[in-house]
Amino acid sequence: MNRKNDHPVIQLDEVSKAIIEQLQQDGRRSYAAIGKVVGLSEAAVRQRVQRLIDSGVMQIVAVTDPLELGFARQAMVGVKVTGPLEPVADKVAELAEVDYVVVTAGAYDLLVEVVCESDEHLLELLSCRIRTIEGVAATETFMYLRLRKQTYSWGVR
Amino acid sequence: MNRKNDHPVIQLDEVSKAIIEQLQQDGRRSYAAIGKVVGLSEAAVRQRVQRLIDSGVMQIVAVTDPLELGFARQAMVGVKVTGPLEPVADKVAELAEVDYVVVTAGAYDLLVEVVCESDEHLLELLSCRIRTIEGVAATETFMYLRLRKQTYSWGVR
Amino acid sequence: MNRKNDHPVIQLDEVSKAIIEQLQQDGRRSYAAIGKVVGLSEAAVRQRVQRLIDSGVMQIVAVTDPLELGFARQAMVGVKVTGPLEPVADKVAELAEVDYVVVTAGAYDLLVEVVCESDEHLLELLSCRIRTIEGVAATETFMYLRLRKQTYSWGVR
Amino acid sequence: MNRKNDHPVIQLDEVSKAIIEQLQQDGRRSYAAIGKVVGLSEAAVRQRVQRLIDSGVMQIVAVTDPLELGFARQAMVGVKVTGPLEPVADKVAELAEVDYVVVTAGAYDLLVEVVCESDEHLLELLSCRIRTIEGVAATETFMYLRLRKQTYSWGVR
Amino acid sequence: MNRKNDHPVIQLDEVSKAIIEQLQQDGRRSYAAIGKVVGLSEAAVRQRVQRLIDSGVMQIVAVTDPLELGFARQAMVGVKVTGPLEPVADKVAELAEVDYVVVTAGAYDLLVEVVCESDEHLLELLSCRIRTIEGVAATETFMYLRLRKQTYSWGVR
Amino acid sequence: MNRKNDHPVIQLDEVSKAIIEQLQQDGRRSYAAIGKVVGLSEAAVRQRVQRLIDSGVMQIVAVTDPLELGFARQAMVGVKVTGPLEPVADKVAELAEVDYVVVTAGAYDLLVEVVCESDEHLLELLSCRIRTIEGVAATETFMYLRLRKQTYSWGVR
Amino acid sequence: MNRKNDHPVIQLDEVSKAIIEQLQQDGRRSYAAIGKVVGLSEAAVRQRVQRLIDSGVMQIVAVTDPLELGFARQAMVGVKVTGPLEPVADKVAELAEVDYVVVTAGAYDLLVEVVCESDEHLLELLSCRIRTIEGVAATETFMYLRLRKQTYSWGVR
Amino acid sequence: MNRKNDHPVIQLDEVSKAIIEQLQQDGRRSYAAIGKVVGLSEAAVRQRVQRLIDSGVMQIVAVTDPLELGFARQAMVGVKVTGPLEPVADKVAELAEVDYVVVTAGAYDLLVEVVCESDEHLLELLSCRIRTIEGVAATETFMYLRLRKQTYSWGVR
């Protein structure tokens, strides 16, 4: 079976979807305000939200903008690995500048998104901290010229 | 000058960083609770949070997990484009299954993250809706085998 | 949901697995002989085999050896496609020399196994019948030097 | 000489071809039924079938469907090898999830078809059992999105 | 059958091989001198040589050295073709600077050896006469830095 | 200076070119017959031919056809090398099946033409004798499907 | 002949080399000062310098530093071209941000160095002005992370 | 912050730009002549030029033409590195034939321009001095066929 979890896939009803949409617009919208929109009491909204969080469907988090904080260089790094993939993925994931690591099938073994302050910072990260990890055979860096779309939610509408 | 914005890069003090960290753990933590941790009044925390949001440094949002919602196929699609890049990026960004589009320098012109329910869904998306966009010359798909790390914040600690 | 069929995945018991193994060794072994090995009556074996066939788990077929029949050139052809993938896959699948067509994610859009009598035959197939299909942008041919393993069954032992 | 076998290539007559076609439709069709179609006695059909099998032209086997048995991830793995090719091909061929290994000329040294239950299974196979074989320099995985055609016979019609 | 010719492959006896070796050293060596070495009369050598030439096994030709004649730039050009291969191969073969054209399986569709007087000459050939042929999609040029080995005979010793 | 030889490039007059053309047609044409065509005495032709050979402009040799001698598999092998190129080129050039070795600039370090009797022969050559040479990092094989043009002379007409 | 110019290659004597070295250090060093170092009169130095400039061996120019002038994004752009190369090279060379265009043999047809103010500038240049030139099939951009060496003179010491 | 220097980016006024343009035409033009064109005294021009040089905006240097000095082979070498990048860049930069070394993001880790006298010289440089540097995994050479544009100044007009 190709199911990845032990518990069943969650089927959201229309009310839960409406609640999630409200929170995608503003994660701190009050339960009372949400309740008015979706036609539930504040307590019922609070309970539903808690259940969505507990079941892992949704989390409510602060998301910061790297550019506003002076991190001007973003890039995707394709990594080719020699030997087992997971230990290398683990080592790469420990780096603070790395915000995304995925093991992929295809021309690269890992795709790694990095956020750096400058070209010097990126070069130091690549040269001294990623490429020196045992098992890293080669890297190819895709510098971001323009981030066109980034959303944090799927499967609701 | 290679600065990308008109307003200056924001330098966060230690208190603002501590507030962001609290909200990265739980986006709905009460201002009072945060105030106790960082040593500010509830009103001062509220004011600071509002300023961080207004300045674009941070947003607080619901983030849903595609796997829990039955979207079992994630992939990065490298797109090679003929002619201008931006119109193609715009068209790709309109697709609901696409949650990430970045224009890159390197072997691909666009990197596009897609979230699908199944192989059939992914094939239909690629074959009938991405590859038929005018200017798309070729696509190469990197199927995700395992998402190892994903964080939503940088530059604070 | 990422399930591909309407009916449920079949869980084989040990007896069914033993029957399949017998038929993998010799597809015409008599039900009586199989019954002796697996501890069932001839009728019970016949019934089980019919159910395995009807449910699509197994088929019993004649498999011919291309080399013995004078087809000396086998190759995998990686096909890069412009535009939609499925119409091209359909057209390629109609060719008699093609015994395998799969739509793939990665550097090629289709992988196509071909069986030919000679280099001339292969060249004619590639040049005049595959590369002239509308939507075929390029082909790369992997000539077989030695077929090391080929099995027709999975998931039983 | 570029002939690969000591015994001569077999030239099938029309009757043998008709028998093979019958068995490609149903590997357990009775010799009597086949005899009626092709105009031979049951004994003559039996004798011809035995000769086709003994000469290696044809075998009759049970073929199982990986998808029906819950093996939802199929992929072709291109393997690049350092040093001699055959020892690596041998080691890869020993793996149970591998149903096809061919040594090829071209950009990959081996093409390996694998059948797995899930992404996790595939990742474990690639990372811990294929990539750790001595001589494996790199792998590139072509995930199957849709199997369009698969036949088990050539050169008869 | 994968035989390419109607007449049978020729099996050379030791005397014919010895004659060919003599002529590989010097194509104008007298039949009498060859006869002494191989133990045949002049007439018998002449007859054997004529038969080797008539059957297509061997030709005796003047081979010129491009470098000595002022052709300082040699290169192999890999050509990628759109559509049928043979018409493009024919057009390329008509060019005087091209001394070798082979249709190949693999990353390039044609391999073309060219002999030019200078970089300007090579650029003009590529840009104005090869790349303008209908069906030529791309070329990649492998400039020769040093020709290490070139022999004109096989299979004799 | 980019001249490759100590002695000057040879400028052939029309008579020498005519002599070479005669010998390109038939390397054993008699000096008397050539003399009639080009308007020189037999002795003068003999002297000119000797000078062309001594200066390295031309040689007259037996050229055998691999296909006629049962060498049915020809291929160009692109070799990627680690470290110095020349020792690897030397080792490859020692192999009897190799009739051409050139050091190139570009995606491959060496281009090597090989002539083999069969796929098995080619596989053994690649796997056991080329890929085991120290410094050979990888090979990519371009199987010949059809040799379209091969000439042995340049720069005369 | 592979000579590229009509006039002969210039052989510099030791005095001319010493003069060039002085001017490589400081292009405005006075002829009197240079004369003292190389042992010539001011007039003789002036004459020699004029001859070196007139013959094309040397020029004395102001070279500006893009980084100091706010051009923070440098990149090499590999361009693949369809059809003739020179018209595309000409068009690319007209662009102000392009300071270097070379036609190359190999995986790219043109190598183009560009100097831009920002990622936005680079994206606009690539997308709207380079990729829209007729004959440009694809571009691959190599962003500069660090310029390690740049010299303006060869062949003297 | 993505600024690369401690001191601020320089904003040139129109007069400074005009001075630089004069010196781009002729690096030894007298300050008096420049002063007449830009409307300043000789002393003021001298002072401005000195400031432009001291601040690193501009240098005035002798630039020699490799072709005129007999360096007929120019090439860009793409270098792939194993492990840290900077030590390899440093070693490559020490070579006299190398006039340009840049660390890049993308398919190559370093781009290195080399200037050689001949193919032999280039081969020796690649084979014995670049490829033997520890950390150099592979090189790909792009031979220059024609240098179409080369300018030494940006950002002035």
Automatic annotation (TrEMBL), chains A, B, C, D, E, F, G, H:
<dbReference type="InterPro" id="IPR011008">
    <property type="entry name" value="Dimeric_a/b-barrel"/>
</dbReference>
<dbReference type="Pfam" id="PF01037">
    <property type="entry name" value="AsnC_trans_reg"/>
</dbReference>
<feature type="domain" description="HTH asnC-type">
    <location>
        <begin position="12"/>
        <end position="72"/>
    </location>
</feature>
<dbReference type="InterPro" id="IPR019885">
    <property type="entry name" value="Tscrpt_reg_HTH_AsnC-type_CS"/>
</dbReference>
<dbReference type="InterPro" id="IPR019887">
    <property type="entry name" value="Tscrpt_reg_AsnC/Lrp_C"/>
</dbReference>
<keyword id="KW-0805">Transcription regulation</keyword>
<keyword id="KW-0804">Transcription</keyword>
<dbReference type="Pfam" id="PF13404">
    <property type="entry name" value="HTH_AsnC-type"/>
</dbReference>
<dbReference type="InterPro" id="IPR036390">
    <property type="entry name" value="WH_DNA-bd_sf"/>
</dbReference>
<protein>
    <submittedName>
        <fullName>Lrp/AsnC family transcriptional regulator</fullName>
    </submittedName>
</protein>
<keyword id="KW-0238">DNA-binding</keyword>
<dbReference type="InterPro" id="IPR000485">
    <property type="entry name" value="AsnC-type_HTH_dom"/>
</dbReference>
<dbReference type="InterPro" id="IPR036388">
    <property type="entry name" value="WH-like_DNA-bd_sf"/>
</dbReference>
<dbReference type="InterPro" id="IPR019888">
    <property type="entry name" value="Tscrpt_reg_AsnC-like"/>
</dbReference>
